């Protein structure tokens, strides 16, 4: 006879889509449950694989057997390693104020719902600021992240690779000093002996600290040198947290490979990935090249040249949407090609607005995926919070690559 277990969700769970994903997560973990009146807790009389839930769940905060203290999930602890005011910017997620970041908790849930675990490979062909990579890594899932933007590749690398090089980064911090007299020039910092860092995680770390400082300066007029020093120290603390979480929870981190490449032609073998989690560029609504111009230029890139590779930036007026549609159809065919039979792709996407008119980019991309041979199994509505967002609503689309 099984004992009744109470399953409670995190206190920050507040949206309908989160309750839907929480229930999908429980079902994917094989839990049969009844929803309690408060909607945020569940009762189960069935055998619960508590280990799986405790180590992998995103929305569950705790499990409790009668007359026992609650057992808290790994995620409950992970979330607490947060150096920001924002609940979802824990560990290294906060590095760089990138617009259009995924909600990390949602990504952790989607990875579970898709049945991915250690040894599997997840692809995000539009890795952006690396949210999928950080969450996959924490769950022991290997991740391949692709992005056309060298800045996004840098952010994703630093967020996921720095923990393994913390000693070297800390040692290098000793001789990295702000370059006070020539802030307008290429570099914000220099090494004591003016030696160059070789390409790699240490150089990446300081490059990103500089890009965050430049962003703080251009958006908030913050003194760049002061911003560089405080960001570097806060980043170091977060990387230390990343290491601590790994040790404290005995996590086996997944491998992360970041490729600066084009999602329209992926250099990956057919049927080589176990899942895809992504959100396509909204460049027609949000021009990523313009948005990160200051950082891309400081990194030495030609904005016009880079723009050619970006989906949604090319063309004028309505022609932009035609080019966008063509490009996204190529991406959908690539996603289908690299996905193993039976595997799933989760796509978070919203409709764009052009001159006050809503363009059904969600429908366009759904059609592109279906034409490519993927099957839409589920669509979950997801509202977006915040006055300044370019969209009010997104959809979480779950596709499956049919078995042969
Ligand atoms: C919506 S953002 C992804 C945000 C990401 N989910 C996150 O959490 O930060 C879409 C990304 O697509 C990238 N992108 C645009 N054109 C691309 C292309 N041709 N190939 C790969 N990535 C591209 C942009 O640089 C941008 O980072």
Secondary-structure map:
Blueprint: E1 5-9, H1 16-28, E2 34-35, E3 41-44, H2 50-56, E4 60-64, E5 71-72, H3 74-78, H4 104-113, E6 121-124, H5 131-138, E7 142-147, H6 150-161, H7 166-173, E8 176-178, E9 189-191, H8 201-220, H9 224-248, E10 256-260, E11 273-278, H10 288-291, H11 293-298, H12 303-307, H13 319-338, E12 339-350, E13 352-354, E14 357-359, H14 361-372, E15 375-383, E16 393-400
Parallel strand pairs: 6-7, 6-11, 7-10, 11-12
Antiparallel strand pairs: 1-3, 1-4, 2-3, 4-5, 8-9, 12-16, 13-14, 15-16
The structure holds S-adenosylmethionine.
Give your account of this protein's structure.
The protein has 404 residues and is α/β, with parallel strands linked by helices. The chain folds into three domains: 5-63 and 71-78; 104-157 and 253-400, Vaccinia Virus protein VP39 (Rossmann fold, 3-Layer(aba) Sandwich); 162-248, no CATH class. The chain has helices at 16-28, 50-56, 74-78, 104-113, 131-138, 150-161, 166-173, 201-220, 224-248, 288-291, 293-298, 303-307, 319-338, 361-372, and strands at residues 5-9, 34-35, 41-44, 60-64, 71-72, 121-124, 142-147, 176-178, 189-191, 256-260, 273-278, 339-350, 352-354, 357-359, 375-383, 393-400. The strands form four sheets. Strands 10-7-6-11-12-16-15 form a seven-stranded mixed beta sheet, with helices on both faces. Helix 6 (150-161) crosses helix 8 (201-220), helix 8 packs across helix 9 (224-248) and helix 13 runs parallel beside helix 14. The chain binds S-adenosylmethionine.
């Amino acid at each position: 006879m099984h004992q009744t277990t109470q399953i409670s969700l995190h206190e920050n769970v507040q949206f309908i889509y989160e309750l839907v994903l929480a229930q999908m997560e429980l079902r994917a973990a094989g839990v049969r449950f009844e929803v309690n009146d408060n909607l945020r807790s569940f009762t189960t009389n069935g055998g619960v694989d508590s280990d799986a839930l405790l180590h992998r769940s995103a929305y569950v905060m705790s499990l409790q057997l009668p007359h026992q203290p609650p057992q808290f999930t790994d995620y409950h602890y992970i979330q607490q390693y947060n150096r920001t005011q924002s609940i979802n910017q824990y560990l290294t997620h906060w590095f760089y104020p990138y617009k259009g970041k995924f909600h990390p908790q949602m990504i952790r849930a989607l990875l579970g719902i898709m049945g991915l675990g250690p040894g599997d490979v997840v692809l995000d062909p539009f890795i952006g600021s690396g949210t999928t990579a950080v969450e996959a890594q924490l769950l022991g899932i290997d991740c391949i992240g692709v992005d056309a933007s060298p800045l996004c590749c840098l952010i994703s690398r630093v967020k996921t690779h720095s923990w393994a090089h913390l000693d070297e980064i800390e040692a290098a911090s000793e001789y990295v000093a702000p370059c006070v007299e020539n802030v307008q020039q290429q570099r914000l910092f220099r090494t004591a002996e003016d030696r160059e860092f070789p390409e790699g995680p240490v150089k990446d770390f300081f490059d990103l600290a500089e890009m965050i400082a430049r962003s703080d300066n251009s958006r908030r007029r913050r003194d760049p040198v002061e911003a560089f020093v405080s960001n570097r120290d806060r980043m170091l603390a977060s990387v230390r947290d990343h290491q601590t979480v790994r040790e404290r929870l005995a996590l086996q981190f997944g491998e992360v490979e970041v490729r600066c490449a084009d999602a329209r032609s992926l250099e990956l073998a057919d049927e080589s990935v176990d899942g895809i989690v992504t959100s396509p560029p909204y460049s027609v609504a949000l021009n990523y090249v313009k948005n990160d111009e200051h950082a891309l230029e400081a990194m030495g890139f030609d904005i016009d040249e880079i723009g050619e590779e970006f989906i949604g930036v090319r063309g004028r007026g309505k022609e932009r949407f035609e080019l966008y549609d063509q490009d996204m159809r190529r991406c959908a065919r690539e996603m289908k090609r690299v996905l193993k039979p039976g595997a799933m792709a989760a796509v978070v996407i919203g409709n764009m607005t052009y001159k006050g008119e809503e363009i059904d980019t969600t429908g366009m991309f759904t059609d592109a995926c279906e034409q490519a041979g993927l099957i839409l199994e589920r669509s979950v509505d997801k509202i977006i919070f915040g006055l300044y967002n370019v969209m009010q609503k997104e959809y979480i689309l779950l596709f499956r690559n049919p078995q042969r």
